[in-house]
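User: Some background: our group keeps a shared notebook of sequences we're curious about, and every so often someone picks one and asks for a predicted structure to add to the entry. Today it's my turn. The entry only has the sequence so far, pasted here. Could you supply the structure so I can complete it?
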Amino acid sequence: MSAALECTIGRIIDEYNLVEPGSAVITAVSGGPDSMALLHIFAALRQRLSCDPVAVYVDHGLRPDETPAEIACVRQAADILSIPCDIVPVDTREFAAKEKLSIEHAARNLRYQALRSCAKKYGAMRIAVAHTADDQAEEVLLRLLRGSGRTGLAGMRLFSKDVIRPLLTTAKNRILEYLAGNKIAFCHDSSNDDLCYMRNRVRHVLLPLLENEFDPGIRRSLLKTADNLGEDEDFFHGIVDDVCRQLVTAEADEKGGALYVLDRAGFVGLHSCLQRRLVERLLWAVGCPARYTFIIDIQAAAVGGRTGSELHLSRGLRVGVTRETLRFSYPRGKTSWRGSLRSLEKR
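Assistant: Of course. Here's the predicted structure to add to the notebook entry:
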């Protein structure tokens, strides 16, 4: 069983070019079953893949009673496997309060910041995280409940920027069999049982309900949906790339930041589907949340907005409407403020 799973993951890594040969791979290890399995699989495959795994444990400062045992578990495994191990503490509660984020959102942001910092330290090209097929099913359902569009419902990807998910097509039960067969120790994170988190309610309440009362194969259906939409997204991604090159120009604003200018006539001529995707891309590019209401408002401004009008979006982002363009900028930097572009220009 252990060799079979390692070979399967090795084939996935090869097929999708998930690992850069000769480079380090930062492996996020929480001490839980999935990440411990991933660490051992990378250790078994490192010669074949010509990569050097590095174990990184991010201490979010949220479970002081459990964290020491998890750190000890990760360190012991890394030591046995002769893999470097970094422990990175972060202050999730302080960051959440400062940025006005949920604890979940803040923890995720800090975790990836820490992992990317370690990637820079070790010269790693990839960051490996241990999401499984079960996580994917939960994520698709969670995004559906939050009203995500096609991009969100495509779920997580095997390879996204610098993040790889080699276990994404592997069911949880195979992971547990691998751990048992190799006598690999792991820890249980009690926060995964806390139903105050929506993800846990999806995992422990909603999915079992759907399986027991509606469709025993609901997880497979969710994964199939994600796969199909993922293929569609790959296709549309290329189209949006082409449209973006044709209709969007980037300039430097007065403060040295990015200013994006969208050709209004060309945008209006696009199908509404492409309009939404292009606006979403632009909002991401300027560091603004791609909220549905923002996208719809920008569409409306392009189609019927009065010349000289403007939209006030998140953290000081302004979208100014001219006869020929929509101009995306932060006149005062990324900070909330009241007032219009016109009033700023008069000062």
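Suggested note for the entry: The longest strand covers residues 52-59. Residues 246 and 266 are 9 Å apart (CA to CA).
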